[in-house]
Amino acid sequence: MAMMQHIAAGKTVLSVLSAGLEREFGQGVGAALAARFLEAEESDFLWEARISERWLGRYWSADEEGSDDLDRVAILARLGRAWSVAVLIIDGEGCAHGLMGRRDFRRRSEAARALASLG
């Protein structure tokens, strides 16, 4: 059975994920497992944490079959304590397929300017 938990105000994705992993796998391993999990699924977490997005155009790749169904989307997201601007590869169903680049900022205003400058 799947269990969903909404992240309460003031808690970060990392803290909630760490706590859940500690309950499942024991004391002391939660933070390390959470960091590895976030790293492996970075594009999905960023996409789900987005606050705003901007379509940049189609994503064309000679390597990927069906790449004509993919788009490049710039996002502003809050993941943990950092504001992030990232360019993701997104399919027509709204699922993240990859991360093309990411920059982190201390302030939302800095991140918003960076997002506006992407083109």
Automatic annotation (TrEMBL):
Top-level division of the source organism's lineage: Bacteria
Q: What is this protein called?
A: Uncharacterized protein
